């Protein structure tokens, strides 16, 4: 029971993000994810191209 009381107390002390901050953080995560997808796709394509030239 001490653990549950501690969790409840900690949840009351947490500062939850408002809607604007949540949208900002979500768009940052989505934007960075798209960037890294494009980056790694480009790197994969270049590596495949170079390996194809070696054959």
From TrEMBL:
Alphabetical list of Pfam families matching this protein: SecE
Compartmental location: Cell membrane; Membrane
Top-level taxonomic group: Bacteria
Keyword vocabulary terms for this entry: Cell membrane, Membrane, Protein transport, Translocation, Transmembrane, Transmembrane helix, Transport
Membrane topology: Single-pass membrane protein
Segments crossing the lipid bilayer: 29-51
Gene3D superfamilies: Preprotein translocase secy subunit
Presence of the UniProt keyword Transmembrane helix in the record: yes
Role: Essential subunit of the Sec protein translocation channel SecYEG. Clamps together the 2 halves of SecY. May contact the channel plug during translocation.
Family: Belongs to the SecE/SEC61-gamma family.
Quaternary structure, from the entry: Component of the Sec protein translocase complex. Heterotrimer consisting of SecY, SecE and SecG subunits. The heterotrimers can form oligomers, although 1 heterotrimer is thought to be able to translocate proteins. Interacts with the ribosome. Interacts with SecDF, and other proteins may be involved. Interacts with SecA.
HAMAP family: SecE
Protein name: Protein translocase subunit SecE
Source organism per UniProt: Pediococcus inopinatus
Lineage: Bacteria, Bacillati, Bacillota, Bacilli, Lactobacillales
Gene that produces this protein: secE
